[in-house]
Please model this.
Amino acid sequence: MNELIEAGKVHCANCATPLEGEFCHHCGQSMHSVLKPVHHMLEDGMDMFLHVDGRILHTVPPLLTRPGFLTMEYFSGRRQRYVAPFRLMFVLCLLAFFAMHLAVNRVMEGQGVNLADAQHVDEDAFADARTPQEVRAQLAEQLDGLAVSRRVTPAVAHPALDTSERQLRAMADKRLVALGAAPLAPGAAPVPAASVRTPAKPSDKASGPTHVESKLAGKKIEFAWLPAFVNERMNTYVQRTLANLKELSNRDPAVRQTARDRLTTGVFSVLPQAMVVMIPLFALLLKLFYFFRRRLYMEHLIVALHSHAFLFLALLLATLLGMLAGWLRPHAAWAGHGVNYLQTAVLLWMPAYLLVMQKRVYRQGWPMTLLKYWCVGWCYFWLLGIVLTVAAVMGAGH
Model:
């Protein structure tokens, strides 16, 4: 009779624990060696990518269409096939604000800001001119700036630039008449600015942070109850913010554009951190309003993570649909309007989703759910306004 001999067990290379599977139950290390041929590494990489992609496919559709489903699955212990709540929220937050940043830049580089720049004419542009030669020199400088704007802006802004040029010429003629000189002939080019030496304006040349710091010398903000480094940091933000805001009113279009880009980039760089701050605050609100439901704070935190993950996903979709509608409208207006309706549906689904999710997770009647939904939303609205205001101020100081 043949004897049954127990096969030798494989031990973990890290802690020498006998292995019962592909991973050590004591330290978690894999039994597979990292020293393998390149083609095996490529196979492992593809397997990892497909596994993550599979979890995304199992996570995103119910997140968008089934309120509260992922949260209830997480509470039930079925978590392996879904992306972790914090990772899901954080990735969608970054993607949403990245898309919104692109959309804002597209609007600023397109119609909205360029038209505003084109129509920005200083009413006192020639008030400091004391001679007709200075008026003509300043007009030439202003027209040179408009010429630069025509080269860097799309054709949609050119009519507004023409309006600005007519306004500048009318103001120059008015100043010339006040100085006792003949107005410019229609369409005549003024004397180039380089041919007349005019006194430089400090506000036009010294619009950077150095000029602002010199004006604020001796006027720093100090709070005795704050550490010195906090006061110093706060004053730095104030100086940078004033410098950026000052450059927004500069006559040079390039300086204004640079200041706008700096402000926009600074604000969007701090928005993700601000929203991360909002999540524990939202969970605290849920804990307070559902205090008698005897749920742990961690459960409310999971609800907050999934709620914000959905909001960021909806904002991402709405932003992408808005950009798609803007691209389709010149080519196929009917398709652009259809995409706009879809964008509106996504925006309307956001508050309805949160209401249904709150009802399914906390399992209270509709009257109490509606009351708590309104109270939580009202408190969250004001907290969000405060946090976003602080974030905007910090971003403006970049």
In short: The chain has a mean pLDDT of 79. Residues 85-108+248-396 form one domain. The radius of gyration is 31 Å. The chain has three domains: 1-51, 85-108+248-396, 129-198.
